[in-house]
Design a protein that fits this description.
This is DUF348 domain-containing protein. With 463 residues, the chain is an alpha+beta fold. It has helices spanning 3-40, 63-69, 120-126, 177-183, 234-240, 358-362, 446-452, and strands at 43-49, 52-58, 79-81, 93-97, 100-106, 109-115, 136-138, 150-154, 157-163, 166-172, 193-195, 207-211, 214-220, 223-229, 250-251, 264-268, 270-281, 285-294, 298-302, 307-318, 321-334, 339-346, 369-378, 403-405, 416-419, 423-429, 438-442, 455-461. 17% of the residues lie in helices and 40% in strands. The protein is rod-shaped, with a radius of gyration of 70 Å.
Amino acid sequence: MSNNSMKNLFTKPLRNKKIGLALVVVIFFVSVISTVLFIGTKSTVALTVNGKQQEIQTRADTVGDLLSEQNIQVSEADLVSPSVNTTIEDGLSVEWKQAKKISITLNGDNQEIYTNAETVGDLLSEQNIQVYEADRVSPSLNTSIEDGLSVEWEQAKEITITVDGEKQTIKTTDDQVSEVLAKAKIKVSEHDKVLPGLDDKIGSDAKITLEKAFHVTLVNGVDKKKVWSTSTTVADFLKQQEIHINEFDRVEQRMDKLVNPNDVIQVVRVEKVTDVVEAATDFAVETRKDKNLLKGKEKVVQEGKKGLTKQTFEIISENGKQVSRILKNEEVVKDSSKKVVAVGTKVVTASVSRGTTSRASNTSPSGGKEFYVSSTAYTAFCTGCSGITATGIDLRSNPGLKVIAVDPNVIPLGSKVWVEGYGYAIAGDTGGAIKGMKIDLFMADKNQALGYGRKQIKIKVIN
């Protein structure tokens, strides 16, 4: 082998190694330049994701590209700052906050929304809702928003409460009458009148009317009691108490009068009945003078007969007591017959005088009816005496006559009598105390009469 050939064999590999080395150097240099160039074209960005911040290098052109580069899917409700279309610059701060899905009920209207609010208060502000103290918010305004949270807001309504005519207002979210009154610190008794009812819902007019009950005295006929009432008319009060007024009944108060505390409402129970009775009618008495009869004596000539009438009365009773009995009609069933009575006009002429002998006064005549009586004496001038006897004898003008006072049922007036110790006399007088078996002897002298005293004596009725 020649020297040139050997030389060629030796120099050829060496040349190949140099070329390879040069290629490696070139490739390394290009890589370094490319890396430098690549790194040099990236921007440094501060990215905050759901509150966590990190610093990253990016070649993204916009904020939207940056978030896509970070595998963040942006929804419409998410918070992105600055906007997704903002160009990326070195040192830019980007924030993305994922919206939370919540359920919100506003005055009963429910919907699901996405929000970036931090608290319930922020959420309601985000919804342009101004919250007042009386509004109902659940959960509280300071509650942090969490995904899936349910939020409820109910606006308080202004309720007008009228108590016995006086108005007041209250703002509340309660819709039951009893709850509203309790919140207003208004006590209600079982007798009070509430409209709407305690268990009812507040009406669309947002009004409650309360009438406080008070005591009223109800007199129903003879029954009297105290009851509860609210301000109303007498007519409505009686209707509430289930008091039925009959045709003739009377209410002492006007039916349109307002009932006030401690009033007395009186119902008078009036009853009208018709009573038909048969009644005897008295007969008329006709007197006829009879000169043959002794004065003071009477004789029935014709007996009277009572008639019969049918009478119709209207009887009115108030509370069970009769207050009037009015004769409405009278019909004669049978006529009466008059009674005729003869009245004596004959005046007794007393022929028996005090000149009679003592023998005559002590000797009992034969015949006649004899019996014993209690006797006293009187004068024509005694207290209350007129001097004229029941048969018309004037004793003061005829002091010498012998006259005795008798009970006509025992000794008929006008009878001639014999009196033991007194003699013959006429039964010509009567006296208030002379009843039964008693007689009173007329004496002209007062002292003689007083001295006579009381004696049991024999008397004989001659005719």
